[in-house]
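Re: the 214-residue chain
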Amino acid sequence: MKFLIISECSERKRYPPETLRGILKPRGLGIPNCDIELEDAYRKVLKNYMLPAREMYQGVVAEVRALVDALRKRGHQVDFYIISARYGLLRENDPVIPYEYTLRGKGKKEVTERLQKMQVYKKLMTAVNEHNYDKAILILGNNYVPAIFNSELKVDFFKQLSAKRIIFIAGKSLKTQIKHPNVAFIPIRGWGERIRKLQEITFKIKKTKLTETA
């Protein structure tokens, strides 16, 4: 079975950006944020602190990583993408530097402009266009949902995705906005509940017999 997993990034990184201040300041650089135009300079200085995206992000992404690994151990194919406030759309093994920037708490206009600038929706559609996924699991906070769903801009990833079943884990306020027959909406409140739900799904997959469908 072929799965698509999409998660937002997380504020927690393997290397907290603050710990790198002593390396960056002497070179006239601050903590990386949304200044992607300085990426080359940062990569030279922080080359020993770069990691694949799936390893750099902690918090919720660590739980999503556990889910992805559990599916693979059951023999499923998994494409895992992360929507990053700094980088836009990332594949799980794309190398990233530690940074300090998030879309959480930003206004709707700022979020929409940032996501459009990074062409997240367009890149995601290009990435999945040639695949027929059996199932998709999307884990996004409200500030990251416009990357895949924005009624004003007529962006609706759910309509385009070919997956027969989509599990969407998101804030309760979005439940009335997402109306698609193949979407199973799992409303959550806060990061603690999001983590618990992911752990429940992962535990269920680990207990599933190899001959059964996850």
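The mean pLDDT is 91.
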